Amino acid sequence: RIVYLNGAFLPFEEAKVPVMDRGFLFADGIYEVSAVLDGRLVDNAAHLARLDRSLGEIGIRNPHSLDEWERLETELVARNGLAEGLVYMQVTRGVYERDFGFPPADTAPTVVMFTQAKTVAANPLAERGAKVITVEDIRWKRRDIKSVALLAQVLAKQAAVAAGVSEAWMVEDGAVTEGSSSTAFIVTQDRRLVTRPLSTALLPGITRAAVLRLAAEADLVVEERLFSVEEARAAQEAFYTSASSFVMPVVEIDGAAVGDGRPGPLGRRLRALYIEMARAG
Ligand code: PLP
């Protein structure tokens, strides 16, 4: 397995980051994840645009142009012979003596990339449907930044693991914000596709944007608004989206069945449309 670290492609065992890296000490960095299908990156330009924005929001200069990023990712995918899975990218504020304030402006950011093989299209969970639990959203107020500070999401996902389900939907003031690593959607009885509007309160999901563009093809009217846990439980269908799960039908929320307890036709249709789009490049 080959990983990319600061300009070099190295065997996994040889890629090491110093103890004084600010990513390690302060979670002072951001990340991005793109899917790979048929050996090709999915919707990668949008992921790189979000990476650039995340860096800008925390004052780290982007070490690469978008073209350079894509070339590096493509080379990493090729070197690993990856047909299907994920590319993970992380940039931190670099290595410097520990101090809360930023290091000198010429400190080089640390850039790490690795791949993970994973079945993303023919995922059996999408056939069965995922179960979710709800947990309180205890995160900070800039959730639009794809920060590597993920402790709240780690705890949320572990609560899901402990409950034997696939994802945790985080809830604030009675409304679902998003999943621990996904965007939450419901479909109402009158064919409305409902998801929370973008703000600093949630991550602007790249898969979310793609699914909203595909909604009309599934005869759905998009409604960007908050929805409550009660509304989600009573919805016709529910699903979540992410680069690694595409469109994942939700069949149970906190132990109660959604619809008839099986993946619904509209979620399935959106999943098929998304995979078609991803394969078409
Ligand atoms: N929301 C959160 C909190 C996430 O961590 C993720 C992905 O990791 C998403 C939403 C989905 O974003 P995307 O579709 O860009 O993968």
TrEMBL record:
<dbReference type="InterPro" id="IPR043132">
    <property type="entry name" value="BCAT-like_C"/>
</dbReference>
<comment type="pathway">
    <text>Amino-acid biosynthesis; L-valine biosynthesis; L-valine from pyruvate: step 4/4.</text>
</comment>
<keyword id="KW-0032">Aminotransferase</keyword>
<dbReference type="GO" id="GO:0009082">
    <property type="term" value="P:branched-chain amino acid biosynthetic process"/>
</dbReference>
<dbReference type="GO" id="GO:0005829">
    <property type="term" value="C:cytosol"/>
</dbReference>
<dbReference type="InterPro" id="IPR001544">
    <property type="entry name" value="Aminotrans_IV"/>
</dbReference>
<keyword id="KW-0663">Pyridoxal phosphate</keyword>
<dbReference type="InterPro" id="IPR050571">
    <property type="entry name" value="Class-IV_PLP-Dep_Aminotrnsfr"/>
</dbReference>
<protein>
    <recommendedName>
        <fullName>Probable branched-chain-amino-acid aminotransferase</fullName>
        <ecNumber>2.6.1.42</ecNumber>
    </recommendedName>
</protein>
<comment type="similarity">
    <text>Belongs to the class-IV pyridoxal-phosphate-dependent aminotransferase family.</text>
</comment>
<dbReference type="InterPro" id="IPR036038">
    <property type="entry name" value="Aminotransferase-like"/>
</dbReference>
<keyword id="KW-0100">Branched-chain amino acid biosynthesis</keyword>
<dbReference type="Pfam" id="PF01063">
    <property type="entry name" value="Aminotran_4"/>
</dbReference>
<comment type="function">
    <text>Acts on leucine, isoleucine and valine.</text>
</comment>
<dbReference type="InterPro" id="IPR043131">
    <property type="entry name" value="BCAT-like_N"/>
</dbReference>
<comment type="pathway">
    <text>Amino-acid biosynthesis; L-isoleucine biosynthesis; L-isoleucine from 2-oxobutanoate: step 4/4.</text>
</comment>
<keyword id="KW-0028">Amino-acid biosynthesis</keyword>
<keyword id="KW-0808">Transferase</keyword>
<dbReference type="GO" id="GO:0008652">
    <property type="term" value="P:amino acid biosynthetic process"/>
</dbReference>
<dbReference type="GO" id="GO:0004084">
    <property type="term" value="F:branched-chain-amino-acid transaminase activity"/>
</dbReference>
